[in-house]
Backbone:
């Protein structure tokens, strides 16, 4: 009868207030999750996806990488073979791969290959090419190579706050001198 949809919109509105006015991100995430569930129950997939992307974003910010990875992968999987722009799928896979690398810096090559098998068009994307450069510099413990690859990518392509944050975290892990070999 549309009541879940109304409740979902209210939770989304409350989440936005917590996020943008009160700067209480934990409560914002809780309300985005509730809105996602309610939108899904009403089969309003686009609104549910929008709210779940907020949850994934903040999960990655709060270093809950596994949760962010699950949301990004699930969203990408629902659109493979669908009508969503291929760019969005590539963006979801790119962010999931960055979260994987932050969680386990040595898992990069395996994860990227998995995403290429899942969505072959990803291999030709600029994001994937950058990820391979990034992984190569990690494997060779080449901080300068990483910094150059990051600079080249971020100067050519628009990166959102989350991507910049994840790249800074990866750079910090590499610069702390962790032996990656």
Residues:
């Amino acid at each position: 009868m549309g009541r879940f949809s109304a409740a979902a919109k209210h939770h989304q509105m409350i989440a936005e207030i917590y996020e943008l006015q009160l700067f209480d991100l934990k409560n914002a995430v809780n309300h985005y999750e509730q809105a996602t569930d309610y939108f899904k129950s009403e089969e309003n997939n686009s609104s549910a996806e929008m709210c779940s992307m907020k949850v994934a974003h903040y999960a990655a910010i709060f270093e809950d990488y596994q949760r962010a990875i699950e949301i990004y992968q699930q969203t990408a999987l629902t659109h493979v073979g669908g009508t969503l722009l291929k760019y969005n799928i590539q963006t979801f896979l790119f962010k999931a791969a960055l979260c994987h690398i932050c969680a386990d810096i040595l898992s990069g090559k395996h994860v990227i290959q998995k995403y290429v098998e899942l969505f072959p068009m990803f291999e030709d994307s600029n994001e994937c090419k950058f990820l391979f450069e990034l992984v190569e510099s990690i494997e060779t413990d080449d901080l300068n190579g990483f910094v150059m690859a990051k600079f080249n990518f971020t100067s050519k392509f628009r990166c959102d706050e989350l991507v910049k944050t994840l790249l800074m975290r990866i750079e910090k892990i590499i610069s702390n001198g962790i032996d990656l070999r």
About this structure: The CA atoms of residues 79 and 89 lie 7 Å apart.
